[in-house]
Predict the 3D structure of the following.
Amino acid sequence: MHRRDILKSLLGGTTAALAASLVAGPALAQITDLLTAPKTLIDRAIEARKAGDIAKDNEIVLKVNKVMAEVKSVKASTEIYEQRLLITGLFDDKATYDQFEKGVRAVAGVKKLYWHVVFLSAADQEKRKAEMLNWADVTVLESKGKARLIGTRGVADVNFRLCADAFGTVYLLGRARSKDEMNKALARAKDGEGVRKVVNYVEVRA
């Protein structure tokens, strides 16, 4: 089935649900998760996974979105694959950081949590300003990384997730069908302006 046909079939039943989730608060608009990133529900529909597994990921992310809205912060990115949840972010308020972490760790159904959220006071952020990216630059770094994966021959981009942090680290999550495919995906993740380091959370299996 072509993506255009998948789009037609999905929009009829999901538009209202997506709209409701995306307007729940300004925080949600900035989360580069499976509902708002280039990894759309159209992509999810053609993944080499069972519908039930994808549904579990959707449920988890909606719960994380709710936590994000409750702390009223946009400076975090979430990605998920097979209930393995990856979160990056930067907070300058310790109480908000603690509230966010507590809320995320309480989300049911997560098989593995890769926690890369950092608390750094405003004063310390100012001291390290020269080595840090602002949030707009982080989202650009993520978007360009995802675009590179989409355009790479031999990489099933729908089975990969990518996000970044304020220190120029890119995190790659997902499943590769072979070690060669994983290496190609990692190479493309690294091959971008502003990328200083890549952390690999890709599992290899057919």
Remarks:
- Strands lie at 76-81, 84-91, 112-119, 160-164, 169-176, 197-204.
- The first helix runs from residue 3 to 22.
